[in-house]
Design goal:
single chain; 0% strand; 2 helices; 67 residues; elongated; mainly alpha; 82% helix
């Protein structure tokens, strides 16, 4: 079982890689770094919110609880 801090570090590093990939693809397609940064910011905010909602929904399911 992983520690809490290791899980948080992995989640943050995964999000950083995802953000860099998204920004890089947008920059490569549009040729505009500023557009890549803007889309990165919006993408990260949306994905953080959706991930949080997803986690809370799973937490409410009895199927996956260790009770």
């Amino acid at each position: 079982m992983q520690s809490y801090y290791r899980s948080v570090a992995k989640a943050i590093s995964w999000r950083v890689f995802g953000t860099l990939i998204t920004g890089g693809v947008v920059w490569a397609v549009t040729g505009k770094a500023g557009v890549g940064v803007m889309i990165d910011m919006v993408d990260t905010a949306i994905k953080l919110g959706v991930y949080y909602a997803h986690e809370r929904a799973w937490d409410r399911m009895r199927l996956c609880r260790a009770e």
